[in-house]
Every structure is written in C-alpha cells, then in structure tokens.
TrEMBL record:
Matching InterPro entries: Universal_stress_UspA, UspA
Segments forming domain UspA: 1-143, 153-275
Matches recorded under SUPFAM superfamilies: Adenine nucleotide alpha hydrolases-like
Gene3D superfamilies per record: 3.40.50.12370
Pfam family, one: Usp
Stated name of the protein: Universal stress protein
Family: Belongs to the universal stress protein A family.
Amino acid sequence: MRNLLVHLDASPACAVRVRVARQLAARHGARVSVLFAVTVGSADLPSSFSANVLADAARLADIDGRHRARAAVEKMVSLGGPEVDWSETTTASPLAALTRRALFADLLVLGKRAHHGPRADQLPANFAETVVVHSGKPALVVPDELSTGEPGRRIVIAWKPSRESGRAVAAALPLLQDADEVHVLMWDEPHDTRTHPESPLSLDTWLRAHGVAAQLHTLGRAPSRIGEAILAQTQALRGDLLVMGCYGHSRARELVLGGASRSVLKQVPLPVLLAH
C-alpha cells in the first residue's frame, strides 16, 4: 500500500478523511494524494435569478468550498507528518474524475454523501458505493465523525467465501499485518444446504501464511438482517475498522446493493474497507 487517494468535497468531514489517510500513510510509508471534485449545482440559490446568474453563483460557491478544503489540508500538514499532494477538477463529474485517478491508487479514502443540508447536491446518490464498483479499487469509507484514535488496531472481517470478500481481505492485508487484533465473523448462508459447509480453516490458513493471527467467530446460520448483525458483532468486539465485500452491480446509472452492503453503508459508524 503505497498510494492513498482521498476524495474531498466542501464538507467539514473532509478533514476526518485526510487525518485517517495521513495516519495510515505514516504507518505504512505511503503517499497521500487528494482530489477535490464536486458537482456544480445551484439548488440552494434563489430561483428568481437568471440561469447565467445562478450558474456563476454556483461556480463561486464551489470555489469558496475548494478554498476552505485546501486551507484545512494545509493546516493539517503544517502540524507535521506525511505531505499531501493536491489536485482538483472543475469540469469532470466527481465519479468520472475519481474513477480515472483511482487507476493509480492502492486505496481510496471516501466519505458518505450527505442526504440533507446545503451540500447534499455536491455528489450523486450512493457515491462511495458507485466509486468502488466502477473503479474496481478498494476503498476505505470513513464516517463524518470519528474519534482522534488511529483506526486499524482492532480489525473485524465480515467473511463469506466470495470474490468480493476475498478481494477486500487481500486489499486489507497490510492493515491486518499491522493490527493488534484481527477478528473474523463467519455465518452460514441461509440458502446453503450442504451438510459440510466450507471450513473456516482455509481463511485462517491463508491469513497465518501472511503473518496474521486472527480469532475466528463462527456464528451459525446467517440472520435475515445480516448487515445489522455485522455491526452489532463489530461493536461487541470493540472493532475500529471493518473489512467486507461490496456486493452490488451497476445497471445503467442505478446501483443495486446486497443487504449487508446496503445496511452497513447506510450507517457507517466506523471506517469500512470495501472491495467489489
């Protein structure tokens, strides 16, 4: 993990993403790049203005947000620690710009789109999930509010024998190797009628071969509300970072997520490392 790419918009939560990225970079000798990209909009401006006036005012608002975001990054860097490479776009859509830049990143650091408020129209719906699916790169989705501690000391893996889950664990390997504790949550699939389901030892063997001693938690038949069960178990184990697959696909412009992904990403109470 040598290159981290952080998406910035004009929300105060960007400072949390940059802080987490710089913490990870300091521990793993990585570079941090940020990309400021938002959708130019005028939803919060008076409709009595002409279209040209609205467009100009929206652009000025975006410039103001960009200045605040850059000032926040520069203030953080001035306190010491890893440098941050700044870039921005005012022409491409946030999804297109981030997907293109993701080609040269090992891990993306994203936030959740605000559902309400003055900045809700800066990003399309399901932004983080869509970036993960379209870019093919793993992403750490960071909540808007997070304690000042370093995430990644107690990592919880929500495991199922799938491509998405395997990619997420492989992407998280540098973090897993550096963690103090690693826990693996495993449920039997509701539709799995095999008498002898796949042994959890195969994952344990793979992790140990890579220097990770994980505690396995086999939890029986998966509940119908699996996402909520994952979050409850993670909280009980005092996990500070969750690793899981992002289960979904893109149909034109609509992203359809599986139950676990949808439930966890709706709440995002802790950093979640996703891969598709």
